[in-house]
Design brief:
The chain is an alpha+beta fold. The chain has two domains: about 90 residues, 2-Layer Sandwich (Alpha-Beta Plaits), CATH 3.30.70; about 90 residues, Alpha-L RNA-binding motif (Alpha-Beta Plaits, 2-Layer Sandwich), CATH 3.30.70.1560. Helix content is about 15%, strand content about 30%. It is built from four helices and eleven strands. Strands 1, 2, 3, 4, 7, 8, 9, 10 and 11 form a nine-stranded mixed sheet that branches. Strands 5-6 form a two-stranded antiparallel ribbon. Helix 1 packs across helix 2. It starts with 8 loop residues before the first helix and ends in an 8-residue tail after the last strand.
Length: about 200
Amino acid sequence: MTRRPRPGPLQRAAAEARIILLNKPFNVLCQFTDPGGRATLSDYLSIPQVYAAGRLDYDSEGLVLLTDSGPVQHRIADPRAKLPKTYWVQVEGVPSPEAIRELSSGVQLKDGMTKPAQVALLEEPDIWLRTPPIRERSLIPTSWLSLTITEGKNRQVRRMTAAVGLPTLRLIRYAIGPWHLESLAPGEWREASVPAAWLK
């Protein structure tokens, strides 16, 4: 008789974990308190004992994952796990083929070369208006990119686009691993399931 292996700590934790998907609005801190009085996650979420798995900058919008499980939080946030993160990026200017190739193959930043990314031009997405709106200059067009990375250098996407001459005007995180914003409006959240592979 063959015995099944006992599940490890991550499998046991994942089986019981709650995972929350939140669409973080612009100018909201990715934490639950702020001595300075700025808006935080607690303005949109009142579920006890959940914590953000990873960060999203104050001036960025989009998907934040929260969980009540330490091992699951670590699995999501750990850069060694290389969970892909997809961003929708509105940039100033029109990307050239050379800029797309450079973003795709790796960009030299002050803290090192970025890893290859998946980059594509994106039709302007049908999404919510930002409050306040982005600054626009009448003589300079804007474009949208879909950019997927597997690392997490500080403000990496903004620095990547700036390095190829395309300043970021708006940054929305659309997906982390298997989780997506889908129809979540800013400030809305829903529960999601743990990937089946994490339970094996």
